[in-house]
Specification:
Blueprint lengths: L1 H12 L7 E5 L4 E7 L16 E13 L2 E8 L11 E3 L7 E5 L5 H7 L4 E7 L6 E10 L5 E4 L2 E4 L7 E4 L12 E8 L3 E32 L5 E15 L5 E10 L53 E3 L2 E3 L2 H10 L14 E5 L2 E5 L4 E3 L3 E22 L8 E10 L13 E9 L2 E10 L7 E21 L3 E10 L5 E6 L4 E3 L4 E4 L2 E8 L3 E10 L3
Parallel strand pairs: 1-4, 2-15, 13-23, 21-27
Antiparallel strand pairs: 2-3, 3-13, 4-12, 5-13, 6-12, 7-8, 7-11, 8-9, 9-10, 13-14, 14-21, 15-19, 15-20, 16-17, 18-19, 21-22, 22-25, 23-24, 25-26, 26-31, 27-30, 28-31, 29-30
């Protein structure tokens, strides 16, 4: 019995172990990229270093799988991959095991892999060109590499001599690209087309609006019977990729709306980056020579905008009036937009999907912009807004607000995703930037308000007329130095009562709304009760 048991154990221990075959898939044949906005970014622009949104990536790859057990390495996946979200379909017998290889072959990755190990330091003499070598032990890195040599401790590249580290070989586990590995089994050798789908951090998108004021007025009138402004509204769809992997000829889409996504741990960032080297000064600050400030040549004065057109030698000077007419003929943002490359809007339940009609390259550490919204005849009211809730500071400029209705009859009538807004006005030098602001998501039939900036020609002055234990009496004076009437709106305190027929409640807030005549001023008063 004992002899039979020994023979059985010997047979088990000497049985051959089936080796795993490594199959490498270097790149995807086809890729789809669906980008979701950052849920916590708010009105801030995209973080260019590492965008805080995410993307759903679907890759198609053809792989030759041998018979038996094998490890398939999907190289070139996104740097911010959530490995727990990865789904591989098309394998004969499914996936047995998944692993993310986050250690990349890079200067930082090599230093990290060689911590507490010896390397060779090569230094070149600046006088003779002689190269000397010595052994050193990497004690800390990669953010500040400290070496231990026979002479003590020193920081890398702080001796003043050209030097470099030479490694004995490439450590196991370092990949040239971010890699996802899966273990699978197959009864026979087969060529299969696999689909890899996963979520990845490091992506984001936003709409970037360009609003251009046009000179002509609309025949439609606003609430105060002043004509509305015609506006050219254009928007770019901006996709941001913060990872180190590019996606060539991708089917790209963007999703607008708020998804219910649970917060999870940040993915492990691969170590593929450069070294951070730090040296310590060997001098005191009073020993460092002062080299003086760099002097720049004076700027040339700009040419007169109304100068006459003439040919002066080889220089052609174009009159400002002619340049102004040329720039007003065609809106700046609409000049060269190919209609075939405008993102197409689709409904995705209660969300909005924007599909780019052609394949595009979404490059690493870059941004891709595609036309998204082209509305050349939008109508907005130009309103000058003032507030009374702050301490009076004399005469102050009023804020300029463009207010419109997101309706088709007003030149809009389509969803407006949140994003950054730039407003341009005409001048004798062409289109000039008048203001920058942000726009939140606006659905069809919503009010749309765009803050332009402030006007020094339209001003508000608030003066305290009298004060008692029970009330304060205020006087507001509005002045208009424009050569046309302007529409004004003044928001009063919630408990204010005024002596003007133009005061009514808007969103439960007492508000004065009226017209300030050309080169004139208008005054009214209001009373605030005090709770004492």
């Amino acid at each position: 019995m004992i002899r039979a048991l020994l023979i059985l154990l010997l047979a088990v221990t000497t049985a051959p172990v089936t080796a795993q075959t490594v199959v490498v898939s270097e790149s995807a044949e086809d890729v789809s990229l669906t980008v979701y906005r950052s849920p916590s970014r708010g009105d801030r622009p995209i973080n260019k270093n590492w965008p805080s949104g995410y993307a759903l990536i679907t890759e198609t790859r053809t792989v030759n799988i041998p018979a038996g057990e094998s490890v398939i390495r999907f190289e070139g996946v996104s740097e911010g991959m959530f490995p727990e979200s990865a789904i591989v379909t098309g394998l004969p017998e499914g996936v047995r095991e998944k692993n993310q290889d986050a250690r990349l072959l890079s200067p930082a990755g090599l230093v990290d892999a060689y911590l507490k190990r010896k390397v060779t330091i090569q230094r070149t003499s600046g006088a003779t060109g002689k190269v000397t070598t010595s052994e050193a032990l990497i004690t800390t890195g990669p953010n500040g590499v400290i070496l231990q040599t026979g002479e003590g401790y020193e920081a890398l590249r702080c001796t003043g001599l050209p030097e470099r580290m030479v490694y004995g070989g490439v450590p196991q586990g370092l990949s040239a690209k971010p890699t996802l590995s899966v273990v699978t089994q197959s009864e026979r050798a087969v060529s299969v087309k696999l689909t890899l789908t996963y979520l990845s951090a490091g992506f984001d998108w936003e709409a970037n609006y360009i609003v251009q004021m046009r000179d002509e007025k609309s025949s439609k009138l606003g609430k105060n019977n002043l004509p509305k402004d015609k506006v050219s509204l254009f928007a770019w769809l901006t996709l941001a990729n913060g990872g180190s992997q590019s996606f060539a000829r991708a089917n790209a889409m963007a999703i607008a709306g708020n998804l219910n996504r649970e917060r999870n741990n940040n993915p492990v960032r691969p170590t593929g980056q450069g070294l951070t080297l730090k040296c310590w000064s060997m001098q005191r600050t009073d020993q460092v020579p002062f080299r003086g400030l760099q002097k720049f040549p004076p700027m040339r004065p700009p040419p007169s905008p109304r100068s006459m057109s003439k040919l002066d030698g080889d220089t052609i000077v174009v009159t400002g009036a002619r340049r102004e007419r040329e720039l007003q003929d065609v809106p700046l943002a609409m000049a060269a937009i190919d209609a075939s490359m405008i993102a197409e809007q689709e409904d995705l339940g209660d969300l909005k999907l924007y599909r780019i009609p052609e394949r595009v390259n979404v490059n690493a550490k870059g941004q891709k912009q595609v036309a998204m919204i082209v509305q050349p005849d939008a109508l907005f009211e130009r309103i000058y807004v003032g507030f009374t809730g702050r301490r009076p500071r004399g005469s102050e400029p009023m804020e300029i607000l463009l207010r419109g209705k997101n309706q088709e009859k007003e030149g809009l009538g389509l969803p407006l995703p949140s994003g950054q807004v730039q407003v341009f006005e005409h001048s004798s030098f062409g289109m000039l930037l008048a203001g920058e602001t942000s726009l939140r998501d606006r659905a069809v039939e919503d009010n749309v308000e765009i803050e332009v900036g402030s006007s020094s020609d339209v001003r508000i002055e608030q003066v305290l007329v009298s004060e008692s234990k029970r009330k304060r009496v205020w006087k507001i004076t509005l002045s208009n130095a424009h050569n046309n009437d302007v529409d004004a709106e003044i928001e009063l305190p919630r408990n204010a009562k005024g002596n003007s027929n133009n005061i009514s409640k808007i969103d439960a807030i007492p508000t004065w709304r009226g017209i300030i005549p050309t080169n004139d001023e208008i005054a009214f008063g209001y009373t605030v009760k005090l709770n004492r």
